[in-house]
Amino acid sequence: MGMVFGKICVETPKYQVIKSTADYEIRQYAPSVIAQVTYDPAQFKGDRDGGFSVLANYIGAFSNPQNTKPEKIAMTAPVITQQSSAEKIAMTAPVVTKEGGDTKTVTMQFLLPAKYQKAEEAPKPVDERVVIREEGERKYGVVTFGGAASAQVVEDRVEKLKRVLEKDGFKIIGEYLLARFNPPWTLPAFRTNEVMIPVE
Q1: Backbone angles phi and psi of 110, in degrees to 5
Q2: Ranges of each domain in the chain
Q3: Most distant CA pair in the chain: distance in Å?
């Protein structure tokens, strides 16, 4: 019931707030280990979040874990979506979706629980599409907002955040991430979302 009303009951990424203003926070995120899958949404009837099931199977979210131990891995939050150009860009977070330009490929990532300090410590996936890798420290300008994260709302938040970050002298070094902390069945009014822009 708590998830319907927006309660976040899973592990979230560790970070340090470097700067906080009325418009945004600058956060330094700790190193982490991620599981990722890259795919064409057409394989999932056009669903850009279709890779979620592949990663959920790896950790055993809905059934037996599809890894060689097999070991159930705790789910984390948020789910993160990134739309970008066709080049591959390093990303972070529990789940990341990246849409390639004309190729329309998507990369989705789960941030694995902090108990996994190195990629080799994580259970090896059975599905060869799932890749385990390490992500170093990284810095983001972040704005938090509630409600449904529609394309227009996200675009408006991204443009405003870019403007204030640049005005305050921060150099933007990559594409934005959209972090969604709640499952789809959470009532929109109780959802927590974040737009994250990588900065130097």
Answers
A1: -110, 130
A2: 15-29+137-198, 32-76+87-135
A3: 50
pTM (2 decimals)? 0.80
Which one is predicted more confidently, 111 or 40?
A: 111
Q: What pLDDT, in 10s, does the model give residues 63-98?
A: 899 999 999 999 888 766 665 444 443 444 445 555
Counting Cα atoms < 13 Å in the Cβ hemisphere of 36 gives 25
Res 94: pLDDT:
47
CATH 3.40.50.10490 fits 32-76+87-135, yes or no: no
Q: Are strands 32-39 and 25-29 parallel, antiparallel or unpaired?
A: unpaired
C-alpha neighbours within 13 Å on the C-beta side of residue 158: 20
Pairing verdict, β 138-146 and 25-29: antiparallel
Question: Number of helices and strands (H, E) in the chain?
Answer: 2, 10
Q: What is the structure's pLDDT at 87?
A: 41
